Amino acid sequence: MNARIARPERRAAELTVVLVIIGLALGVTAAPASAAPPWGACGRSTPEDKIVRQFPAGITLRCGGPIGSSDPRHGYRHILARHRTDFENMAFGTGTFQNWRDVADLSIETIANDPDVTVPVGGNQLCMSRVIFLNDRRTGQLVRQQIVRMFINATTRDVNTLHPHQRHC
User: Are residues 116 and 73 in the same domain?
Assistant: First the structure.
């Protein structure tokens, strides 16, 4: 009787191995359930106009720059250099079990889809803001509400900067 029980289990294991090998041969991969957003990489010499991610309403996050600057003025490099800590505090300080890029990505996506406020500001920019609701990824429980402001180029709709704030635009 034990041989009969073991045989179907062994066949299932063998079938699983075969399917994994076929999948790998075909180039099929699976992302983990909590995969980070699909942001393109920005290396030290990556062009400023490389797209990191496109969002609704024609909004685009680019690498930005200037390249090699210790004080980048726009795009991903600016957010990384000047506001990463702000988003880390939003993510880790409240127990969301997300990383700073997850929170920044959620903020851009949410603001692009449905801003609470959109106003023109100087320098051909639009300021868009919204209350962002952060949930604990494990429990789904709301752990924080935070206003986030996003400034975009009014013509190209490229993200210049993004940061938490006490007030709307």
Answer: yes
Answer yes or no: do 93 and 26 share one domain: no
Same-domain check for residues 76 and 140: yes
Decide if 35 is inside a domain.
no
Residue span of the structural domain in which 15 resides: 1-30
Same domain, 5 and 84: no
- Show the CA angle centred on residue 87, arms to residues 126 and 114, nearest 5°: 40
Of 48, 69, 37, 46, nearest in space to 159 by CA: 48
10-residue mean pLDDT series, the chain (169 residues): 47 42 43 53 92 96 93 95 95 85 96 98 97 92 96 98 98
Angle, CA 17 vertex, CA 16 and CA 18 arms, to 5°? 90
Is 143 within 8 Å of 95 (Cβ atoms)?
Answer: yes
Q: What is the pTM of this model?
A: 0.77
